Amino acid sequence: MPRLFTALEVPRNIAMSLSLLRGGLPGARWIDVENYHITLRFIGDVDGRTADEIVDRLDRIDRPEFQISLNGIGSFGSKKPHSIWAGVSPSQEMSALQSEIERICQRIGLPPDPRKFMPHVTLARLKACRLDDVVTYLSGRGDFHTLPFKVSRFVLMSSKDSIGGGPYVTEEAFDLRDFGSGTNRSSVEPIKSFV
Question: What pTM did the predictor assign?
Fold first, then answer.
């Protein structure tokens, strides 16, 4: 069974802006542009029945579209950095969506996510990078930001058991409510069943 997670997609024009941050850091393994995303909730390896139940519950989420932008870059792992990321502007709607997905996962019986939600787009994985090189890289790019973009759906994605960074496959897509509408736009038909 593939590893599952929920995410927000990064529009192509925003992904191209992110791609300009690639390079200039020895030892970095850069994520492919088509694999950029904002993880909402890592679900992990689950059986087909649980995956189908997750899809059924996620399909009932009724939340409005919202706008976000990306700004700033940073690294995880203060003394021994292991990844570079682009930050996501705070959004009450995004946080509410993420919290609802977390509640759904716990109701299904999955353990709570131990990490505090910190929305970001992973740009690179680091292995054997010198701290000084990471600091230099970040200091030259700290003013990165994008224009706001509309989030009109969230997705359930899968990844192969690999070192990280993809390839990722969109298994299901869930529309958010149109700004001017009181109901969801047409729900996407299931792409596949996991059972």
Answer: 0.88
